[in-house]
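tool_call: predict_structure(chain=1)
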Amino acid sequence: MYITDPGPPTNIILRKISNRRVQATWTPPAGASGATYLVYINTMNVNSGGTEVTGTTYTTETLNTGSTVTIRVRATTGTYLSVPAVSDTLTVSGKRINDEIIYILRCFLLASASSIRRVSGAGAHPPLL
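tool_result:
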């Protein structure tokens, strides 16, 4: 148990686990048995709020594609808080295909399939290439 403020966690690593989720892991401060952590996403304000985590891993909720993520983590013993440790920044990328593009692609594929049927004859299978 701590008598003074716990030290901050170290080695925060962000890892993209999908186009909309990020996982953060960190190393607990020395002698941190029993400590929990407060995790803050994309905020400089670490004086209130935060998500309480009992382990050394946190996975974000659904983020917007293209979001830039920075995570701050504070160790807490219930009475004392560490200074925040700050992760590097990670951008969650991935392209969303807009509905209009999907519609155009479907129309193109249907038109192509129709042309193949006309060339090869009704009911016949298109030739293999």
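agent: The first strand starts at residue 10 and ends at 18. Proceeding to next step.
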